[in-house]
Amino acid sequence: MKDGTGSTPGRQAVVAAMSAAAALCVVAVALRYGLQMLDDGYYYLQIAWNLSRGLGFTFDGTSPTNGFHPLWQVMIVPVFWLVSDKLAAAFVVTAIQALLFSASGFVMYRLVSALSRSAAAGTMAAAFWLFNLWFWSKGALSGMETGLLMFVYGLCLLSLARLFEGRGRLAATGVLLALACASRIDSMALVAAAFAVLLLKKRAKAAVAVSAPAAAFVAAYLALNMVFAGGALPISGYLKSVTGRALAARFVASGDPAIIRHALANLVELFSLGGRLPSAAALALAACGAVLLAALIARLRTPGREIAAIQTGCAVLMLTYYSAMYDSLLGAYTYYWYPVIYGFLAVAWTVWAALPRRWVRAASASCVFAGLAAFDLAYGADRMQSYSFVVPWGERPDARGVEFLDGLGEGAVIGSWDAGYVGYFCTRRVVNLDGLVNSYRFQRILREDGFAAYLDSAGIDYLANVDYFHGTKEMIRDGLGWPQVFGDSCEFPRPVSVFSLSPAERGYASHGVRAFFVFERPGGS
Known about the structure:
The structure is a single chain. The chain is mostly helical. The protein has two domains: 345 residues, no CATH class; 133 residues, no CATH class. The chain has a five-stranded mixed beta sheet, sandwiched between helices. Helix 21 links the parallel strand 1 and strand 2. The radius of gyration is 24 Å and the shape is globular. The termini are far apart. The model has no long low-confidence stretch (mean pLDDT 92).
């Protein structure tokens, strides 16, 4: 029996089985090849470890930080109440992220079925989302908030769709939008887009009702950050938007349009894939794609048309913010764009269901999944040659570096820029030096007194990090005059994926080596 959304119990069982299979496959990959977490994922784990032991929101056990998105951070704390072994706890967190990511696939099915009145479209949308290996890397294996965000984001779109159908609940939608903002603060783009579309539909009371909980949460969150952390923004977002904030200040003070030029240059870089396509051709393709999408969306009926408008508004707001505020869109983490991809994937399959002829739908779906299979084969082969799959866990320079650090005196304090893995697994205190999970106080000391003064004030005896060939080793050796006391490296064929567009990652990949170093303060023991 159909439930009014085009879904049937049989279809739901099939998609539930697909979701479970995807989760099991993700966990199996981690168990077979080791954790595939981003370094930032370990930031979450170490803060949760400290929280579980009553030390508060801190990475190093002393300095308070707000460099995280709160809902995922709080969610994983109970893992450390139940699991004392850090490696085992990390696998449990990976399993939780995999389950949430897989659950977002089931939500995708319900969403597209509701928008298109086609259970077939919902099933294929879920399959495309669940079995795209690229989505696994950041959505299910990274240790980040992405799996949670996509689950909540999908529920937000589904709840909004029901509102436009006249059978949704304002309070539930408002709570879900607030949870999305707690999952990632930039989900305010979704809230703003939903507010605008509801206003355009002459539903002002509904617009206020669904956006008020998210607005209240964000206002309280920013205020608490100001009181307890010394700055309204999460310190990680504050640091990543340094360029944009400086340009925005110039624009406000003197009308200097540099921020507009910066944003446009970032957009051109994105659409041209970092210059891999001619800029004019890339922009022309983007414009044609936008026109075609608008024409196809215009054919949709309620609630598909409204959800497509919300998703478009959300994407425009996110692109505008990040292109203006960040140094590079290609340099931004790819998981920033998962909500945009998720929403437009739902819209695309809704448009597919509206195609007029059955043979057109069958042929186009066959091409899409043939393309997905080819991509998965290419991407999977590429990833299987990468560092985290090729080099065994215990033989990695990072792991050997942690073994060395564990052998230092119990009072040793270590500073590290990319401090996630080191700080989580090392038994000595590790202080974050890139600032992403440090404090606003750290930034003030850097500005007023300098880096060496901070090392003195924090009592840092050792500096340890993966060598990303940015000149850090040379700065420590020549600038600070500290001697190197440990180094380890290994060669591997593919440090980062050939699918990566990040200029920084591709520059690092060109060295073909993974190296880890430790320097000691002169006169240290």
